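Inverse folding, one chain.
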């Protein structure tokens, strides 16, 4: 673990800290990070990607407003049947 001392500097209405290139390289951090504030410290962490975060809550809200939201759509089942009929012009068919 490497520790350095640096100063907070004014940056517009905010305060900023300059991180040396070597320290950034050692940490493996990139351009987007998470900041966690605790008493007497600010922790900088790699952003944990969560592409589906919040989906469960959104689905629950949809089901509350529309109880049939999770039922199969009959129009899609018709589409699936026609997709398997072999008439797709982009499919290569073998002649018998």
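Residues assigned per position:
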């Amino acid at each position: 673990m490497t520790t350095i001392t640096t100063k907070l500097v004014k940056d517009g209405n905010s305060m900023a800290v300059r991180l040396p290139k070597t320290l950034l390289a050692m940490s493996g951090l990139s351009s987007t990070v998470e900041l966690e504030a605790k008493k007497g410290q600010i922790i900088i962490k790699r952003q944990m990607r969560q592409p589906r975060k919040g989906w469960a809550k959104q689905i629950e809200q949809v089901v509350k407003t529309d109880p049939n939201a999770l039922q199969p759509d009959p129009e899609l089942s018709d589409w699936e049947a026609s997709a398997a009929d072999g008439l797709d012009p982009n499919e290569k068919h073998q002649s018998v």
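The domain at 8-46 is CATH 2.10.260 (Pemi-like Protein 1; Chain: D). The mean pLDDT is 83.
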